[in-house]
Structures are given as structure tokens and as C-alpha cells.
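chain below, 360 aa
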Amino acid sequence: MTQVTQDPIEQNALFKRILDNANTAILVFDPQLCLSYLNPAGEMLFALSLHRIKGSRLDVLFTDSNKFIRNVEQALGSNHPFTERELVFSLPNNRQITADCTVTPLASEDADATLLVELAQVDRQLRIAREEHLLAQHSATRDVIRGLAHEIKNPLGGMRGAAQLLQAELEDEQLREYTGIIIQEADLLQNLMNRMLGPNTLPQKKSTNIHELLERVRQLVKTELPRGIEILRDYDPSLPNIYADPDQLIQAVLNLASNAVQALKGEGTIILRSRIQRQITLGQKRHKLAACIEVIDNGPGIEPAMLDRIFYPMVTGRADGTGLGLPIAQALINQHGGLIECSSRPGETVFTILLPLEKT
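prediction:
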């Protein structure tokens, strides 16, 4: 670590008390861009104490942030502050955060310029906005599909009925075969419309052990798992029972796990993980505790252009896919007051199911 001289902030008790009580993370760097001060909010953000990281260089604290570091160096040289929003930072403890950042050079006549960096973490706000978008997307999609299904099912029923009447009048077996095809295809379209509409029954909720549910999914997936794919468990044993419909949750998780198997194309790893999350917002409602179920695969990832649309019906990256597995899973989880989120990059795709632990 670089030897750090006493910073002016340490000498000014009032100024230090103000920064210590700030809600945003405040970092002060000396002219060599070594950390000289970090307030308590900053210690919480980094999950490290000032004593541990005092004297650390900027590029050590913010790894993989070359552009940001260059902008800081320019600000220090030109003595001009700048603000950037929704920057993604990689922290020393392998955490990633999204934060709004303000960098202010502090020049004085009798000392070299020091640098004040203020970080306001916005992950939670972005997550709430993303949840609202997902819920609005799902609601709008269901409204459109309901209208479309109504317009299609009425004439479809008429066509099927007419084909049945015609079949009863025909004596030629070959002609009856044609009417049979019409009836069969009409039934296929009817089933497709029903699947697009999602679950049509209310969940039969009861006390449910999530790990028993995940083990059931694991066994179902393993029966048809290619030899090159491994499915692992990472469960939190402290997770309490949840009030839910086990059959519907099994269907939702199974849809996600099946997608993961198909994404791996015969080789890779799937992880079923359970955790507890605290103080989480779902659908504009705050919950003290939520169950978090993750289905993780190390496949090629989902293309960014498709990531925002994967919960729309008929959107699929596979030639033989129907694009209904994810919308159905989302509808099942929504009926439990929960939500499915997705994050993806090459080598890691994570589908996260969030469910409130209290009764809804």
C-alpha cells in the first residue's frame, strides 16, 4: 500500500462528521489517486473497512473500469468535475454494482488537488423499474392474446363443427380422412390458443417445501438429460416453507430448467439454487422476505436484442421452439405474487424466481 499523509478531511471534524452521516458513498483520493478517506456508506458499499483499503489505488478499487479511470484522470488534470449515470463497477470482492457517479476535483492554493468521488447505488431503482416493465409487458401481452384468442376460437369452433357434420355425411373413407385432418388441425390450434392464454385455474396453495419441489424438477430433468450435462444443487437449508401451489411451481421451474438444457446443446452445467432475499419489492409491494430460486446454466447466453422480449409469447431462439415456455412460467409465478427475472452473458444465464414468503 502507498503511504498516505493525513487528509484535510481527517483534520476537519465538522466536515468529516457531515460526510460520515451521508447516505451516499463518499471516497476521497490524493493526487496519486490513492484512497485517503471512505465514509461509512462507502464501507457498506464495498463491504470493506477504510482501515483495510486505505491507500489503495483507484484502479484497484474499480477493476475493469478503464474508461471511468481515464475520465477521472482527465478531471484531476483539468480540474473539471463530471457526472455519469448508471455506471457498472466491478468491486474488489467480485461484486458488481450500478451507480450514479459524481467526480469533483478539490483544488487549494497550498496543496495539490485531491479528488472527491460520490457514488449513489441505483441497482434497486433499476430493478424496480425493470420489474414494473416486466409486469406491464406481461399484462399487455395477455390482454392482446385474450382478444386474439377470442377472435380465432369462434370461427375455429365453427370450422371444426362443420367438418364433423360433413364427416358424418360422407361415405367415402378417403374423403372422411380429409375431414379428420381438418378436425385434428383445429384441435391443435385450439390447444395452442389455450397454452398462449396461460394457466386457466387458480393456484391451490398450501405449505410447500421449495427444496422438495426443486428435487422433483431435478429428477424429471435428469431422466432425459444428455450425458454431457450435469445438474447441481446449491440450496439454502434455512429457507422456510412457502405458501404456494406446488404443481404450478414445478411446472414453472421445469420450463426454466428445460430451456437451460436446450441452451447447453448437449454439454455444460445447470445449477438449481435457493436463497432468501430481504426487503424486496415485487409488483410495487414491499416484502420483508422473499424466496429466491435460480436456474443457472453456463451456456452461450441470450442475445441482448432478445433479452427484453423473451417473456413475449412466440419469441424463441430455436427453430423447433414454440416460445410459450417462459410466458407460461411467468404467468404461473405472477399468480403467486412473484416474478421471474433474467440476466445473461456468455457463459452464464440466470433465471431468477422471486416469491414472497408471506401469504398473498
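The radius of gyration is 28 Å. The chain has three domains: 8-121, 126-197, 206-356.
thats it, cya
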